Amino acid sequence: MENSLLHTRIALLWGGWSDERPISKESATACLGALEEAGFSSVEMLDVAERETIRRLAAGDFDLAFVAMHGPFGEDGCIQGLLEVLHIPYTFSGVLASSMASDKAISRWVYEETGIPIAKGLSATDASKGTCAKILEALELPVFVKPAVNGSSHGVSKVSAPEELAPALELALQSSSHAVVEEAVAGMEITVPVIGGKDPRALPVIEVVTGAEFYDIKVKYEPSELHHVIPARLPEDVIARAQELALRAHTALGCWGASRSDFIVTPDGTPVILETNTIPGMTAASLLPDSAARSGMPFSELVTHLVEWALERPGVGTGALPRGAGEGA
After folding, report:
1. Going by fewer Cβ within 10 Å, which terminus of the chain is more open, N or C?
2. Is 62 exposed, middle or buried (0-12, 13-18, 19+ CB in 10 A)?
3. 277 tagged catalytic
4. Active site residue 294
5. How far apart, in whole angstroms, are the C-alpha atoms of residue 295 and residue 214?
6. What single-letter DSSP state applies at residue 118?
């Protein structure tokens, strides 16, 4: 590895204001350890919720931002837009890909246009009787009700009876301006990480075994050996199809560096996509590092590649704005 890369001054961004702030800190702490293990000599964890963090980013104290934020403000294009304005390269996807992938209503449209199988569903902006009636007329129960913009299964409900729909919509709309309602698809839950810059590739498919109704926030951060089966217990042609669809989603959304697409594989072997995560969890229990390790890539190598791919991304600045840039004459 080039010695100059190891001297990159890295701001490891975590925190913010979303429901996933605690998990963000866990991801950042794990990434800090992996970056230090890889030999990076200047890495500092910074909470984006602290005003001093923004001042230091703008002052040019760092060469690159390693984004370990999840959910709103971190995974939806907000922090990416700030870093673009400051001309600071950053890990993972850009502004547009982040915002499209984080909005389940928009990403559903992208999947459909790209030929990726999706569950039957629709969007809702209120929990009125009229809205509930339209949903019950269009979709068969059970359904999942989700905030259109949120992460880690916060605000997600499974609705099996008509009287449960309005409360589920109200819960989802507490954290998002609109909700997505999808028919529940029966089958095996899998996830497919994709990594890379100009030439992304799919990593081993993980079968997610939960023992719960869905892969909720509690299950996601329990020890990986309790819930991850690698490789997934599926025929080779189904695994190849899932990897191809994850690559297609990654490319269609314009992701960079890494993504992780979640699917339900139906009994006939069709992978039906649920969502694409542009900043997958990066804790010891997380799916992306687990899959990368199974492919022969240790955590320290994974984070090193993420730094390399961030610096290679077309159109991203090469450091913070020079002092005085943009000041009036």
Report:
1. C
2. buried
3. yes
4. no
5. 26
6. B
Are 273 and 116 in contact, with CB atoms under 8 Å apart?
yes
Nearest to 126 by CA among 173, 182, 83: 173
Q: Look up the CATH number of domain 99-117+185-302.
A: 3.30.470.20
Looking at CATH, the fold of the domain delimited by 121-183 is given as Dna Ligase; domain 1 (3.30.1490)
User: In the structure encoding, which two tokens stand for residue 117, read together?
Assistant: 């199988």
Of the listed 19, 75, 207, 275, which one is catalytic? 275
Which element (helix H / strand E) includes 257?
A: strand 257-265
Pairing of strands 43-47, 10-14: parallel
- pTM confidence score: 0.89
The verdict on whether 233 is a catalytic residue reads no
What is the end-to-end Cα distance of the chain in Å, rounded?
Answer: 43
CATH code, residues 3-92: 3.40.50.20
Spans of all domains in the chain: 3-92, 99-117+185-302, 121-183
Closest CA to 27 of 56, 58, 67: 67
Which of 19, 103, 189, 262 is flagged as catalytic? 262
pLDDT over 60 (residue 192)? yes
pLDDT at residue 215, rounded to an integer = 45
Give residue 154's pLDDT.
Answer: 79
Selected residue with higher pLDDT from 325 and 196: 196
